[in-house]
Amino acid sequence: MKEKSFTLPIITISIAIPMAVAFLILGLKTKVNFGFNTSNLPLFHAILNSTTAILLLASLYFIKNGRIVAHKRANLTAVVLSSVFLISYVIYHSSNPSVKYGDLNHDGILSADEKLRAGNLRYVYYFILSSHIILSGIIVPFVLFTLQRAFQERFIAHKKLARFTWPLWFYVAVTGVVVYIMISPYYA
Fold first, then answer.
1. Rounded to whole angstroms, what are the CA distances from 90 to 64, 96, 100?
2. Separation CA 118–CA 101 (nearest Å)
3. DSSP states of 112-123 as a string?
4. CA separation for the pair 182, 82 (Å, rounded)
5. pTM, whole model, 2 decimals?
6. Would you say residue 25 lies in a domain?
7. Is residue 30, in this structure, part of any structural domain at all?
8. If you placed Cys at 118, which of 12, 83, 102, 146 could pair as Cys (CB 3.0 to 4.6 Å)?
9. 174 membership: H or E segment, kind and range
10. E-assigned strands of the chain?
11. What is the pLDDT of residues 18-72, one digit of tens each?
12. 28 part of a folded domain
């Protein structure tokens, strides 16, 4: 029996998610009122990202020590947490104004004085943020194809792809926490 390929759905999802996120965040002219306070979601996102990073470290430990079931559970939990993060991220950004690094008075405008106070750390922040955003879009097909190979029991192909997927995913999870720590002083 030929194993079912999910290549087309994975490609479709991998294109649709970043496009939908970009539209929901950049394309909405007015912010959405979800009927509950969404302003504390960035802390929740940092918790999700840090937990995902820990699960990825555990996953690596488990597979290196032959604990395949624990490896699988850690990875599937990381996928679930990443999915929850994505939904929550869209909710937050579609219901709250953007926060600018260095905006001490929370007016949405970076004055010359605020830029001076933020200093060159602004550039570090924007570099980390940019790499985080770009790689968070790129990681989606890597994670899905890596999972597909594992579920199809194509473990050699799974392992080859996981060598790229794991560090990218780990970087995205860790930089998500770093971005939160760096921007959190500027939340209103």
1. 35, 10, 18
2. 8
3. HHHHHHHTTHHH
4. 21
5. 0.90
6. no
7. no
8. 102
9. helix 155-183
10. none
11. 888 887 777 777 888 899 999 999 999 999 999 999 999 999 999 999 999 999 9
12. no
